[in-house]
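Dear colleague,

As promised, here are the two records you asked about, laid out in our usual form so they can be pasted straight into your sheet.

NAME FIELD: protein one
SEQUENCE, THEN STRUCTURE:
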Amino acid sequence: MDILAHGLWVDLGAAAWHRHRPLDRRTVGLAVGLAVLPDLVQLAPLVALTLSSSEGWGVLLAYANALPGYEPPMSPLLAGLTHHLHCVMHSALVAGAVTGVLWLWLSRFWLPLLGWWSHVLIDVFTHSADFYPSPVFYPVTYWGFDGVAWNNTWFMVMNYLAMVIVFAMIFRRK
């Protein structure tokens, strides 16, 4: 799923939750931030390239708009770094370890982590095996579920239409 959609889905989830149990803005903001963080971390090396070289902007745009099999050529170091950051940030094992450490430290579940967990869960089913499959059990395995490619036009239209419907359901007046 695209970065914006991750943030919007978590914001909609927080709005629905808020109707039954109040949430403070800080918690919602952190949850939305954690929902988009996995993709932003993955893009960080490309953003650094963009800021440090003249060809960087073109590589970043090509990467962001790539279709399966049409990823832009990158140096082995950059390709490996973005790949491993993707794997780390989309792993349920890594998210589980962070959740466990925070739970031990805080003696409770830290609610904003639901943003990261939603990102991992959604991406498992919205990434195809051909295009950045989400390696949910990384670093044990690179295996990823062969889901629907999120960048298919029909899927993006359906996804944003579903958000509009959920928004209308949450905010409709009785």
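NAME FIELD: protein two
SEQUENCE, THEN STRUCTURE:
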Amino acid sequence: MAFTYRYATEADVDAIVSIEEASMSNPWNRDNYLEAVNSDHAFIMVAVDDDIIAGFAVFYLTPPESELPDIVVAESYRGKGLGKALLSQSIATLKAQGIDTIYLEVRVSNTPARTLYSRLGFEEIGKRKYFYSNPVEDAICMSLRMEE
């Protein structure tokens, strides 16, 4: 599969919400994504396969830092390296924008995501007790300091 990567537009929001609702126990709502798409301080990177949104990553920008609050790959595209490719593309985009550090939280039980983040250079920097709900779970805080 050959994916293309681009910034999300308002026309992508329904597909993004559909992926989110099918994947997450506490999904974001449509307004959250519209806000990110229309903000000067956020963006959503989408991975597209033949005009189908296969995955997305949301970034909030507070230069020189960024936060990754949400990244999801549609179930039918999982296990094919798309998460790594989407995050790698996003990291390159952020670096080109002058971002030097990315922060995120991940569920303690989300081993695949934690493994992916570690492989891309993210390091554990702390823990947040009871950060997630449905089910209640701690978060591992991670950061990636990008090389100049």
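A couple of things worth noting about protein two: The chain has a mean pLDDT of 94. DSSP finds four helices and seven strands in the chain.

Best,
R.
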